[in-house]
Amino acid sequence: MSSLPFPVRVAAGLVVTAVEEVQALPRTIVGLPITAASQVLQLSMRAQQVVTELAIKGDTALEGARPVEEAPSWARFDDDTDDRTPVLPRRSPFDDAAVAPSAAATNGHPRPVTGTPIGVAEEAPPTPDALPGYETMTIAQLRARLRSLSVDQLTELLAWESAHADRPPFVTMLTNRIATLTAES
């Protein structure tokens, strides 16, 4: 053990450390820009974390002050449509143009476009009894209602689909569901 006082020993340790750092300076100066940049990035990321933590704490504190709606009043989902009011398919602007009478045929006065050719009655395809409004359903709406239908109802829908719209995704979904129910019985 040394008989020198403690502050003298600490000062000697500082001098030795300074000399070691000066000797290592040529090796560390090469990586200094990278080290400085990484420390700045680390500091900025830590600051972002602190700000985010504060925002989360603020959200938690204010959560009770404002009730949150389950679903906003303006939001509409496929499953929210009322079965009594079918959703009409979107019409193309070209649908009306193909059946509009020319101005010459009406003595220069335009006639209102109705969407059907003059003299031809518009017939709506019959709705299958198994699922009212089926003809206007989207694939998502059909998927939501599949589990409530029996094999007979699904067979009726498949026959209607094949005879009228013949939409491949609908045919596939109905066929797969019939196969699943048949395999389960």
UniProtKB/TrEMBL annotation:
<feature type="region of interest" description="Disordered">
    <location>
        <begin position="75"/>
        <end position="112"/>
    </location>
</feature>
<dbReference type="Pfam" id="PF26450">
    <property type="entry name" value="DUF8129"/>
</dbReference>
<dbReference type="InterPro" id="IPR058442">
    <property type="entry name" value="DUF8129"/>
</dbReference>
<protein>
    <submittedName>
        <fullName>Lipid droplet-associated protein</fullName>
    </submittedName>
</protein>
<feature type="domain" description="DUF8129">
    <location>
        <begin position="141"/>
        <end position="182"/>
    </location>
</feature>
<dbReference type="InterPro" id="IPR047728">
    <property type="entry name" value="LipDrop-assoc"/>
</dbReference>
